[in-house]
Amino acid sequence: MANNYYDSSDLKKFGEITEWGEELGNKFFEYYSKVFEEGALSAREKSLIALAVSHVVHCPYCIDAYTKDSLQRGITKEEMMEAVHVGAAIQSGATLVHGVQMMNKHKKLSM
Amino acid sequence: MATKSLLARKNKLSKPNEQLRFLSNGIFADGKLPSFAKKLKASEQFPLNPNTIEILQINVGYMCNQVCAHCHVDAGPDRKEIMTRNTMQQCLDVIKNTGAHTLDLTGGAPEMNPNFRWFVEEAFKIGVNDFIVRSNLTIIRSNPKYYDLPDFFKKHNIHVVSSMPHYTQDMTDRQRGSGVFKLSIKALEELNAVGYGKEGSNLQLDLVYNPTGAFLPADQKALENDFKKALKRDFNIEFNHLFAITNLPISRFLEYLIASDNYEDYMFALVEAFNPTAVANVMCKNTISVSWDGYLYDCDFNQMLDLKVASKVQHISEYNEKVLQNRGIITSQHCYGCTAGAGSSCQGSVI
User: Fold this and answer.
1) Which of A34, B60, B120, B255 has its CA 20 to 30 A from that of B19?
2) Chain A residues in contact with B234 (beta carbon < 8 A)
């Protein structure tokens, strides 16, 4: 077993989660592949959303997978970085909007 | 990026045997990945046999004005292998007298062969259903003696197939060399100007997309839509179809995969994407590849690996379609490149 928490070669073994829980595993992968099909959103747009979310949820496997997926779809590095900034903006916005709560509490407690 | 061929750099990967050895060792020798033959057997498609020969793909020489990072031919300005007029005449005789109906000229830059125009004129007189010239585009703008190529192509109803790995400069120049994108756009404008790729015109202009790194192409139709939209928007350029071609792990692309430590992951990706349905339509089923010196191969990739057809007919001078029909196609691990996903051929995906 690798002496670190993340090993990039583990991504190839993702499918093995069905071995310890076949029904739920299969349902998940079926759902997953359905989600990324062309729909009201193009597969290209979905790939960029996935790339942004991968960063927000700090998933190194997902970042590897969707960087590659973006390259395969001809997405440029500028588009990829803009998507990451969208994720970062939402994430930092989510932190900062709590500042209102802080202000509210501060005002309530202060004379 | 390298500015010389593997051969000129005396790189050991310039030797076909070294490449084949590499492709059979490591992950394929220790059983981490199955050999291509084993995979074919598992899907009951071994040995691979050809269908009727429809396409004659002729490599008229390895000389090229570019030194692309992914080139499976190891072409470049330093390569001197050039098809002679005598061998071209033998090819013309085959076209005249056999069932092959499509002619596909490749290189190197085929236009750099001194007998290129003579050959096109002679083949045009014979008449073929589809007459393809694989042009790298920049050759058209590389020297005034090539400036009239768009008109020459038009006059002989040539189907132009050109490499364009991306609709942006950055990704194109990384693969094909600095300045290639701008020259390619200029060449495409000139091809459009004489009618190539325009709506309502019979002059066919197709683009070839090769991934610009260690990844496989995505869906060909989606890529084609993106290319059409971007090239029209940014440069008012039009074309007919986009062929998405997977890079095969040989020659300079193999060198790149090894040097960038991507070889194993790339081979895993190819094997994982193996599609038994694509096997039925791979190009070696209906194509014969002819080298600059007249030898016959199952495909241009096998030509570069010096894997001649497994037939008593080995040379264009002794061409016999019935005898060639009965051969088994020679495969190795590089063939995974043509069977991944939607498959890959010189005409793009196969399913």
Assistant:
1) B60
2) none
Among B167, B217, B227, the residue with its CB nearest the CB of A72 is B217
SS3 A5: coil
A74·B167 Cβ contact <8 A? yes
> Which residues neighbour B128 within 8 Å (Cβ) at sequence distance 6 or greater?
B95, B101, B102, B103
**Tokens for A51?**
């790339």
Q: Is the ipTM of this complex over 0.85?
A: no
pLDDT digits 0-9 by tens, B279-328: 999 999 999 999 999 999 999 999 999 999 999 999 999 999 999 999 99
Q: Is B235 exposed, middle or buried (0-12, 13-18, 19+ CB in 10 A)?
A: middle
What does the block give as tokens for B167? 């609709």
Alpha helices in B243-330 (DSSP H): 251-259, 263-272, 276-279, 300-304, 321-325
A76 contacts B170? CB cut-off 8 A: yes
Indicate if the alpha-carbon torsion angle A47, A49, A50, A54 is positive or negative: positive
With beta carbons under 8 A apart, name residues in chain A contacting B172. none
Subunit contact A43:B222, Cβ cutoff 8 A: yes
Question: In B65-98, which positions are buried (b, 16+ CB within 10 angstroms) versus exposed (e)?
Answer: bbbbbbbbbbbbbbbebbbbeebbebbbebbeeb
**CB of B166 within 8 Å of any CB in chain A?**
yes
Instruction: Tell me the DSSP string of A37-85.
Output: SSSSS-HHHHHHHHHHHHHHTT-HHHHHHHHHHHHHTT--HHHHHHHHH
- Kindly state the tokens that stand for B183: 């020259």
Distance from CA of A72 to the nearest CA of B (A): 5
Interface probe for A, chosen from B219, B221, B246, B349 (most Cβ of A below 10 Å), is B219
Work out the minimum CA distance from B13 to partner chain A, whole angstroms: 27
Best mutation target among A71, A75, A80 (most B Cβ atoms within 10 Å) is A71
- Check CB contact of B261 with chain A, cutoff 8 Å: no
Q: What are phi and psi of A20, to 5 degrees?
A: -105, 10
- Kindly report the pTM of this predicted structure: 0.93
Strand partners, B59: B106
Among positive and negative, which fits the CA dihedral B80, B140, B57, B275? positive
Instruction: Convert the pLDDT of each residue in A59-87 to its tens digit.
Output: 999 999 999 999 999 999 999 999 999 99
Say if residues A8 and A60 touch (Cβ distance below 8 Å): yes
3-class DSSP assignment, residue B206: strand
